[in-house]
Amino acid sequence: MSVRLAHRVDFDDGETAGWMAEFAPSPALSPILRSYAFYEERTFGFTTRRQPPHGDGVFILNFADPIIITDGAGVETIVRAGEGFVAGPHLRPAFVRSTGAQSGMHLHMSLLAQARLLRIPMAQLKDSVVAIDALLGPAAARAMADCAGDPAAGAARFDAIAQRLLDDSEIDSRLEAGVALLQARPDLDIAAIASCIGWSRKRFTEVARETLGVGPRAFRRLLRFNAAAEALRRKTYASLADLAAACGYADQAHMNREFKEFAELTPAETARRMTGQFSGIVEA
Predict the structure, then answer these.
(1) pLDDT surpassing 70 at residue 277
(2) What is the number of other CB atoms lying within 10 angstroms of the CB of residue 192?
(3) pTM above the 0.70 mark?
(4) In what order do the strands lie in the sheet with 67-70?
(5) Label partner for 50 (CA 20 to 30 A): which of 57, 69, 252, 278?
(6) Where does the pLDDT of residue 14 fall: very low under 50, low under 70, confident under 90, or very high at 90 and above?
């Protein structure tokens, strides 16, 4: 059994139009990778997106016109058709410019999975965007470029590539357990989580910071910010005060400070400028 189509959506909201087809990985990879999302999109009235930080990996293949990415450190990277890029964890927004037409594949996975797939600690990619061929070599990059075209066939080809990259690559199971607790148990402090996995707080913090690119506390802050930003995009909140409480902020002022830090916008500004189908905030 190989990949399968999980769902497809076609959209035209007057601001963006296109489609997205999301494929579930083969059973052998589904515990590690979440999905392969193939997409085409046309934007109307804007060509630049602000991409706020988040707690997941970013691995994208570009099948269409060049896109220009300015990462959290201010470094510009041009990604042409047939090329791809990886982004490490960011604590500041990145900016993505295009002609308005985009096509590609987004590999959805956690930061831990990205560290395992690339076989490098995410600390090396913090606030950075790097071309895939610089990390995996030209041969792997060329093989991934062949995933363009029919999405189902492309997903199956990429699944085989990912399987080869993940062979004999592992993450310490104690770190995996600790990260899972960071996500599932916001009531547990970091010292308690470290104790649960048999590490000291210092050891857990050091290994997490090296592997994830951010320490446990910053990772939790990113998760909370992501939850709030997604609720803003989906409009699933009664008021900003209610949203702050639901996401675990001390109060609305606390949420405002974190949005200003991570998105460099207030929650209200973020909500007004969010795109409907894909992540990102309209910039220009």
Answers:
(1) no
(2) 12
(3) yes
(4) 76-79, 67-70, 94-97, 48-51, 281-282
(5) 252
(6) confident
Token code pair at residue 208: 């997490």
Calpha distance 132→113 (Å, rounded): 16
Nearest Cα to Cα of residue 117 among 106, 127, 109: 109
Q: Which residue has the tokens 């060509």?
A: 47
Q: pLDDT per residue over 89-142, tens digit each?
A: 999 999 999 999 999 999 999 999 999 999 999 999 999 999 999 999 999 999
- How far apart CA 223 and CA 20 sit, in angstroms, is 24
Q: Is the pLDDT of residue 1 over 60?
A: no
Helix (H) or strand (E) holding 271: helix 267-273
User: pLDDT band for position 36 (50/70/90)?
Assistant: very high
SS3 of residue 50 by DSSP: strand
> Is the distance from CB of 37 to CB of 105 less than 8 angstroms?
yes
Contact between residue 257 and residue 273 where contact means Cβ atoms under 8 Å apart: no
| Cα–Cα dist 141/74, whole Å | 25
Please give the Cα distance from 284 to 264 (Å, whole number): 15
- Residues 216/205, Cβ–Cβ less than 8 Å: yes
| Single-letter code of the amino acid located at 43 | T
Cβ–Cβ under 8 Å, residues 96 and 113: no
**161 SS3 class:** helix
End-to-end CA gap in the chain: 44
Characterize the bridge pairing of strands 58-62 and 67-70.
unpaired
Strands, E assignment, 58-210: 58-62, 67-70, 76-79, 84-87, 94-97, 101-109, 129-131
Q: Side chain identity at 92, as an amino acid letter?
A: R
How many whole angstroms separate alpha carbon 271 and alpha carbon 96? 19
